[in-house]
Design brief:
This is SPW_0924 family protein. The protein is about 50% helix and about 0% strand. By secondary structure, it is mainly α. The N and C termini lie far apart (about 70 Å).
Length: about 45
């Protein structure tokens, strides 16, 4: 019985965490204007 209560409590906690993160939304930000380097620069 304790295992069932623990599992239910964990499920409720996980669901509350997901709902809280959904309510906060994604952080506002911008992409970098500089392109990413895809090649290694030559070394002298």
């Amino acid at each position: 019985m304790r295992a069932l209560i623990a599992a239910a409590t964990g499920l409720v906690a996980a669901l509350a965490l997901v709902l809280a993160m959904t309510a906060l939304g994604s952080p506002a930000g911008e992409t970098s204007p500089k392109p990413l380097l895809t090649t290694v620069p030559t070394h002298p």
